[in-house]
Amino acid sequence: MNKLGVRPYSEPNESLLGYCVRLSKRNGLSGLRMLYDLIGVPNIGKNKSRSELDRSEVILEKLAPILGRDLSVLREAFSAQSPVWVYDEKRLIQDIRIEHPRICPNCIIEKGFVDWRWGLAHLSTCPEHQVLLLDACPSCNKPLDWHSSLLQGCHKCGATWEGMDISKRPITSLEEKAWVHATDNPSNYKDLLTDICAAIVVAGRPYDSYHDRRNHAPTISEYSSVVSLAYKILTDTWTQEAWIGSCKAERDVCLPLGDKVTYAPVLSLEKHARTFKVTDIYGSSGGSDSTTFEENAEFVKQSRFNVIPASSDTDLLRYQVSSSQLTKMLGLPNGCIQQMVDDGVIKPCNSTNVLRDQLFDMRQFSKLFSDACQAEASGRLVTPKSKELTTHLTSYGKVLSDVASGVLNGSITDSSELNQIVVNELQYKKWLAAMLENACSETVPAYKAQAALKCGDKKIKTLIHRGEIKCSRLCTSYGSIDGNSLLEFITKTMK
């Protein structure tokens, strides 16, 4: 293959795709696609996302002969653009490379090339010129693409970067640090990226309880503004207070369930970002910052949209939570949510039967326990640690289910926690007896029998040998106990 007529060398920190655009422009080509056709880079197709970034080796192999340079020299020139930290499966944004172009117009004018760091999802503002990186033309608002005119202006509307009025956006010290670390690559950069990516996802959905882990950053207009807001959320007290106050106003339906539920978005960021700490989250007045917090649908996986009913209740996205989140927010032990699902008291938003993958609408709980929250507290206090629940072969989850469904009258003493309920003493005793009788209407696993009798495996075997309780007919070992014999024994020992 003949060499290209103009073969410029890459500039320090120039991106590979940006270099290809510059190479195209210098040789009279329209952009990446025309260059790829010329040098033999195959078309990747419309359904294979992010492949341009994943096949840099193929591009370099095809570029080497038409540039007349050793492949090893080209690899070395662009080696800094593939650090190990660009991908981490544990981050909320796993791959932080952005495939579409983002630019600083002032840098383009002054230097004439695209910086590879502009394509990192955790950076938003040019540290030299203090302006947001553009992903769309300010004149026509159409997204930028890898056209050869990118180095001069927008090929869609003809606007040029020269003389364009770009408003200033002060960069935070934390982002300045992130820019420096992108090239010097310190050992702790991975942890910093984890925190920043978590803040970006939360800034994109500031009122959601549940935040999706994404393979890559979404393609949205003004993505840089979301990233800039993320840095302010991490570092600026006024922005934090404004966000907290906004959460309270936008999620007021959760107020009866307490602060942990109302401020779930803030607590979500605290969970994912170790450097983010709000010292007095519940005492915040909301601040006087004028920052607006917009909800971007592109940060939500399609599977979560699929469960929204025909009534288009898009607010449901704010209140979707996982079962593990529910137990922590409401102070419940494991198993309570599954019990309530099994009893039909609550229904997951999605159709999966796997509890860890199920999502629930927090507003269900506000409705279910509204009466219990308002009822007067008098009677027997029941908690997950109440021993009589174990001895009667039931659970605290069953108490919650029956209070929610009206089978058992109960009063919740603290609406921010569902881990204690006051019930009518006489009704509770009858309820416990019914629970024990129901559990013993079938075989009882030996471990449950041991818990009910407060004994170990040795004592169970002794009781069986004495004939005081019996093994299940379906199990000749000591794994299951005949329920009727167990009920008879417990009733006798209670007298």
Please outline what is shown here.
The termini are far apart.
Uncertain ranges: none
**How many strands, what sense, and barrel or not for the largest sheet?**
3 strands, antiparallel
Number of helices: 24
Radius of gyration: 31 Å
Provide structural commentary:
- This protein is mainly α and 495 residues long.
- It has a domain at 375-494.
- It has helices spanning 16-26, 32-39, 51-54, 56-67, 71-77, 105-111, 173-184, 189-204, 223-235, 237-250, 259-262, 264-272, 302-305, 316-319, 323-329, 336-342, 363-368, 370-374, 387-391, 396-405, 425-439, 446-453, 457-466, 483-494; strands at residues 93-95, 214-216, 320-322, 359-361, 380-382, 410-412, 421-423, 444-445, 480-481.
